[in-house]
Amino acid sequence: MLLALAQLNPLVGDLQGNGARLERACREAARQNAQLLVGSELMLWGYPPRDLLLRPSLVEQQRRVLDQLSQNLDPSLAVLVGIVEPCADADLPNLHNAVALIHDGHWRVVARKHLLPSYDVFDERRYFRPASEPSLLALNLDGRDWRLGLTICEDLWVEPDIAGQRLQGPDPIEALQPLRPDLLLNLSASPFGIGKADQRRQLAAAAARRLRCPVVYVNQVGGNDDLVFDGASFVVAANGALATALPFAREAVHLWVAPDPSAPVRTEPGAAQPSAGAGIGEGSIALTASSPPSLEQVFRVLVLGVADYARKCGFRSALLGLSGGIDSALVAAIGAAALGPERMQSLLLPSPYSSLGSIDDALALANRLGIPRATVPIEPLMQGFDQALTPVLSGGTTGVSAENLQSRIRGTLLMALANQQGHLLLSTGNKSELAVGYCTLYGDMNGGLAVIGDLYKTTVFALCAWLDSPEATDCRRELGLPADGPLIGEAILSKPPSAELRPDQRDSDSLPDYPLLDRVLKAYIEDLRSPEDLVAEGIDPALADRIQGLLRRAEFKRRQAPPLIKVSRRAFGNGWRMPIAAL
To answer: Please, what are the averages of pLDDT over each run of 10 residues along the chain (583 residues)?
Structure first.
């Protein structure tokens, strides 16, 4: 059987547009004589649709789109696509996360999801009921009967030794074992996470060995709000060896030849099934059997996240404040790669405390990236605010109030320019700052997207060092960035971190050194450790208590922060639901 894997980038809620995107992929697959095309989880809706699922009008629109696809698609091509299925009764939740088969002028539901995640960023039990029985589709294609096992995303995550956890509930792979499928197809919408692509392949390989058949894994690609889906779809052979793989963080459709199940199966380690070896459709590129290194993965995901956030929200250009520091430098590079330097605008907002070195570094970076820039000194505005507040405060602003006022002046000017010219304002704060509240509401926290809000400061430094290394040359060239010479620059990489809000200020005046701070923050945020745990590992008790207190007290700021792009195991936002008023 010639099978097409459709790794597509849907727009959440655009059922008509997503249907048209699927139809284009199907036309191309049919032209290349594919017999079955497999899409991703909830592909007609885009994942995650969240409370759009509660709108009956959209569920009805889905039916019309499926009817239209049934009439428009080549009847010889069978198509499996992720949809929602309304339940017959009035109980809540009243939907299934399902798979539809479109074939021979008709469509019908052929599978439902068993395991419904409600951890981290997921909340599927709010909308869906679980399936009650395994899904095996008997399908005759070109005179050959196929037995296709069907699972949806989390249904494959049943190996706790690989996944690190397992949802309570049935084992859909075990339920399929006595049904002896010829192929297992998994339709997924699995967001990016460092190391997650390897986990998916290990889980698929475990399922292949249990079922003694190949596993086809089709994942969504593209950015939707805070989540980025990295694609990286693949097929593993019956022995668990990788048979073919689709590109990372790129839309693609790819053909693969499913082996005749009546033929002998090779079980030697490393043996793989044949692949058609060619991508088709919009966005296809050369295939790779291995994922990029982790820092390159993070950079590519951030670029895709910014590009899709801007495009899907209707922004054609972006703006950021350029300070000469490492955070804004990284955001500028990501923005230039995502949108093109001609659609980026940078604004330098020097104060009396801004060093000449920082201004020069910011200008040099803008020149290297080819980003237009403008400069608006804020000293006159600082003086005006100070004069206005002097009668009320019985003197001018001092200390933290004066420092925050500078940040708020900058934030106001950036928002004004963004409003006037229709830019998406990119916030440049990192996760370490957001964690401990080392950021200013209505100041540097202003923006429509916090690009690096899920990167610890140490990761920011590591990513910038990688960008300037020879290992990043091919990636930079592919993403349209200058491929030769430093991009961030040694002056920015070696500069001690500073907000430059007072003379000779350093971040280390207020915070522990970032390697230590980030170690403690990761333990609190991602591992949910206690201060006692950290003290037992050698962290100073006063420091452990101080950082925990800063993390807790900054919750009200994070609730008002722009959305960020999730790359870590636990990010602030939808996957972080801590109370504001709490002990």
So the answer is: 97 98 96 97 98 97 98 95 95 96 96 96 96 95 93 96 92 97 98 93 97 98 97 96 95 93 55 42 40 87 98 97 96 98 96 89 96 95 93 87 92 97 97 95 95 97 96 96 95 86 80 94 95 96 96 96 96 94 85
Query: 153 catalytic, yes or no?
Result: yes
Contact predicate 241/212, CB 8 Å: no
**Per-residue CA distances from 548 to 34, 387, 534, 551, 557 (Å):** 56, 38, 11, 5, 15
CA torsion sign for 132, 133, 135, 137 is negative
Q: Catalytic: which of 153, 213, 464, 475?
A: 153
* Number of helical H runs and strand E runs in the chain: 18, 21
Q: Which of 28, 41, 124, 154 is catalytic?
A: 41
Query: What phi, psi does 111 have (nearest 5°)?
Result: -160, 155
CA 188 – CA 298 distance, rounded (Å): 20
Instruction: State the catalytic residue, choosing from 28, 85, 113, 500.
Output: 113
What is the pLDDT, as a whole number, of residue 362? 95
pLDDT in tens, 48-82: 999 999 999 999 999 999 999 999 999 999 999 99
485: left (phi over 0), alpha (psi -120 to 50) or beta: left
Whether the CB-CB separation of 326 and 419 falls below 8 Å is answered with no
Look up 566 and say whether it is catalytic: no
Q: What is the structure's pLDDT at 582?
A: 86
Are the CB atoms for 452 and 302 separated by under 8 Å?
A: yes
Which positions ≥6 away from 124 have C-beta within 8 Å? Answer: 97, 113, 116, 117, 118
Q: Is 113 a residue of the active site?
A: yes
Query: Across the strands, what pairs with 348?
Result: 375
SS3 category, 169: coil
Dihedral pair phi/psi, residue 572, rounded to 5°: -65, 145
Pairing type for strands 95-103 and 106-112 reads: antiparallel
Neighbours of 430 (CB within 10 A): 30
Question: Which residues is 454 bridged to in the sheet?
Answer: none
Encode 209-237 in three state secondary structure.
HHHCCCEEEEECEEEECCEEEEECCEEEC
186 phi/psi in degrees, rounded to 5: -120, 115
**Which pLDDT belongs to residue 396?**
81
Q: In this predicted structure, what is the pLDDT of residue 284?
A: 35
